[in-house]
What does this fold into?
Amino acid sequence: MDLDSSCKTYCYLIAILICFQGCAVSNNPEGEQLAETSMPPTSALSVEKEPEDTVSLAYLLGKFDPSQRPEFVKLQSPIAGGNAVGRYMHEEAFEAYLKMYAAAAEEGISLVILSATRNFDAQKSIWESKWTGKRLVGGVNLQQTLPNPTDRAKEILLYSSMPGTSRHHWGTDIDLNSFNNAYFKSGDGKKVYDWLTKHAQEFGFCQPYTDKSLNGRSGYEEERWHWSYMPLSKGLLRAYRAKVSYEHIGGFLGAEAAQPLSVIQQYVEGVNAECK
It folds into this structure.
């Protein structure tokens, strides 16, 4: 990311802080007061502005460096926490998120982005660390317990995407506050989740991976932390469906399991109907 793009991110935050100085709002748990920004979206990928056939195959597969793309902005604290600090998000989705962040703060709800854009290489690192057993899954070394590639891939796919199939490639999807569903079922976590389920759609966000027992969707298990910016992600999903085939999913360990497990139909498209 060049200096101008980096500074632009801080300008958004400063503008929001200035806006809030004249408003009577309650302090959020992060100790800052953030309000809506009136800046218009500048996306080159907006569904309303550009048809999906203008989106490149490389973009859909996450084969790009977000720091080198002008429509991506770098995340900083307090908007982001943990490993998400210094990572990137699509500018239009980021602007919408800032508005949601500010609205939540007004009601005493603290939102923190824990993960945002992950390109192909980042997703490959996560996937292969689980594939090789370097990173345990449920406390288990899958390379030892599941030697069959299809069985091992299916286990990893409970919560992690194959490289080239993740919505996190697009810069539209974020993970908030915790990677544990249990966190969102009581206490402060429940307050966060209840607020998001009630208000996130007002800012363009939806939860793509909802409880499968309630709506019969396929693919990944429920992820209460994962939220997607629909004005962009809906069009990108359509573009993915039109452009990506199994010949494009490869270049990582375990890729041979993609077609047997129908990862495009069952996982990429296995989202909450409201997010399609």
User: Anything to note?
Assistant: The longest strand covers residues 173-176.
